[in-house]
Amino acid sequence: MEANRIIPDPSQVREELIQKYPAKVAKKRAKSIVINDPEIIPEVQANVRTVPGIITQRGCSYAGCKGVVLGPTRDIVNIVHGPIGCSFYAWLTRRNQTKPETLMDANYIPYCFSTDMQEENIVFGGEKKLKIAIQEAYDLFHPKSIAIFSTCPVGLIGDDVHAASREMKEKFGDCNVFGFSCEGYRGVSQSAGHHIANNGVFKHMVGRDNTPSEGKFKLNLLGEYNIGGDAFEIERIFEKVGITLVASFSGNSTVGAIENSHTADLNVILCHRSINYMGDMMETKYGIPWMKVNFVGAESTAKSLRKIAEYFGDEELKARVEAVIAEETPKVKAVIEEILPRTKGKTAMLFVGGSRAHHYQDLFNELGMTTVAAGYEFAHRDDYEGREVLPKIKVDADSKNIEELKIVADPELYNPRKTDAELEALKEKGLEINGYEGMMKQMTKKSLVVDDLSHYESEKLIEIYKPDIFCAGIKEKYVVQKMGIPLKQLHSYDYGGPYTGFEGAVNFYKDIDRMVNNPVWKLIKAPWEKAGNGNGAGLAASYVTQ
Ligand code: CFM
Fold this sequence. Notes:
By secondary structure, this protein is α/β, with parallel strands linked by helices. The protein has a domain at 61-204: Rossmann fold (3-Layer(aba) Sandwich). The protein contains 21 helices and 14 strands. The strands form three sheets. A six-stranded mixed beta sheet has the order 1-12-11-10-13-14, sandwiched between helices. Strand 8, helix 12 and strand 9 (290-292) form a beta-alpha-beta unit. The radius of gyration is 24 Å and the shape is globular. The two termini are 35 Å apart.
């Protein structure tokens, strides 16, 4: 901590955050704002409906399904069935990059496909228009797969995207067409869309190609979406180490790789929230264990590589991992040693979707910075408190709306990659298989954890803590910066990245150094802080509850 910095009393902050809310809202929000204790993790209310009008950071189910999970696979034609805005605003905004192997390989990511629903379709139904759109996409591109995404009006009028998809799939014979009931209103956030997407990808894609994959150490990378080129850096490291990446779900991936993914021997999960369902389902059906890893942060990357080598239990691989870590570390060390004196003791706040608010704390730790408050937009209690809490989570009506697939072991393809005894031995070595500790165990005592942060709460937190940097997204960016605090977009990386692996860590250190040590933030005065506005003392922000 900087010598002159006094960290506010978190229980007082908590009181202040909810003080101005109407009683019912205050009662509800209080359960989502907790003071952390890594020893005795407190319960956080999460994955519940947002209070209407509170200005949430959250997105919708369609965003989680189409944008997040399916979007990054380059050779699926993703048709959005709905009004044009749903497709347009999801068009290339997530910065999920892709690199086709040759110029001739299919890449539909730059395209924006929509049925462009009109009032007439709402009144008379849109299935006919959808089928025409599928036919048009097929005639133009002859893709391996076409996926259909339902937006809110589709669910309201009852168009059957699944029946339309089946009909077109049969008609074409050589194109896998499947639909998703991922209407924006399904579930309480984009988290519902992740689950729906996992189900669909598992049902319609995984396991279609049984060709044995080649390589000695074969794994799938789950929950890495190649934002700003993150997956490229992980791929670079895997290649150096001698690990074969069968499929990535779904950054820089292809239909073929996902269809063949069940031939891998391990699933490593980066973003637990968006894809843990896939890990569990692949384990049950094919016998592939999963392991939580983190490639955000140089130390986390080294740790994750060691975990993977330990899982495969091969001495040569272990040696190779150590050699790569030894080779990559000096570059990282040189940069951090130069930057650390300038960043050490500074504070950060992270409010991002469902996993980055956790993972990026590792990078801030490496910079000597403390995370004083953090939270997810839409994660569940297990992402905060660890998976041990799963049996205790109440399944409410909103969660029940989302289908839980009944998965059983495949009669022919089930092949447990490790015996129970082997798994037990790995556990004894400290390797957590099919587990995730969550965010809170890693955060300092008395830091603040806030789920589904509202706009008002974010302003209050900034006023009280005056953090050196606030991490969130584009919706928050300019409001926060007008308050004189730099905002790092951890969704899109502000056009930067990659931030994974060793090279990514270096990029991050440099970007954060530039932001937190830039004198410009101290010179900013928002218009309402300037004298001469309104009553001369400047405009005061007011809220309906005042
Ligand atoms: Fe997982 Fe993601 Fe995230 Fe996420 Fe997202 Fe994202 Fe995110 Mo934006 S899958 S939960 S739904 S790591 S798009 S790449 S940055 S909110 S923290």
